[in-house]
TrEMBL record:
Cofactor(s) needed: Mn(2+)
Ranges for domain DHHA2: 179-305
Protein name: inorganic diphosphatase
Entry-linked InterPro entries: DDH_dom (IPR001667), DHH_sf (IPR038763), DHHA2 (IPR004097), DHHA2_dom_sf (IPR038222)
Top enzyme class: hydrolase
EC number: 3.6.1.1
Reaction catalyzed: diphosphate + H2O = 2 phosphate + H(+)
Gene: ppaB
Amino acid sequence: MAIYTCGHTTPDSDSICSAISLGYLLNKIGREAIPARQGVVSPETQFILDRFGFEAPLLKTEFAGEELFITDYSDKGQAPADIDKAIVVGIVDHHKLGDITTSTPLECWIRPVGCTNTIVKEMYDYHKVEIPANIAGIMMCAILSDTVIFKSPTCTEIDIKAVRELATICGVEDFGALGMEMFKVKSAVSGVPVRELILRDYKPFDMHGTKVGIGQLEVIDLSIFDSVKAELQADLEKLRIENNLHTTCLILTDIMKEGSEVLVCSEDTSIFEKAFNVKLVDGKVWLDGCLSRKKQIIPFLEPAFA
């Protein structure tokens, strides 16, 4: 039986690229694997795939009875709906430990680094498997994306070392310039439906029994949202109601100013305000220095619902 390598429901570049890079590794060590994805490929991810000559992984949303090696998450809310009927054989992730449980032992690679592909790189090193140039290229780009070209507080020396080594393998001399190209693609939001923007990098969370949804958009100039910000906020509220969520947030991150404006829709906005010691104005607030949902939003917001 082949193992499916697959990331979370709304895949970002790390999720897609780690499914591919992990799938290749498993095949090289004698474990038949098929990369998969649960959702649509974002423009940034498509740019990366095109740059290094890859097709998008297989679109697959049902895994009952299948062997699954999870990448880039361990929260049940980001898993396939039939995850309880799948055979989870492994997890490789760089987020907090989630609530997925298994009935059999599994392989776990979970590390506090900036990107799942950094951990996959360590797996290649551990198994002494040579990384092909095109695989190295997508891994490098995923790390640059997740670490915001090393600006994110989640970035570690391990991530930086991995990028430098992968850049040598794939023959990219100026990986910083390539990273900026990626973020320019991310910043092209003109004409994109607001719901598509909200869901581009959106994750659901169960925070002590309370359902919360948080999306993030990283761009090089926050002013590109000026004409659609009201629409984004209105649709964020619609999304909250449609999915019976307590709170929805959209983090609009300016990677050049190194901060984020957060749009908040909630049954009780005071929970968000207390979590960050801020006052929302028209459902919005600027958080200076905030670049990471994983490290600068979730660890503060989740305890507020306890």
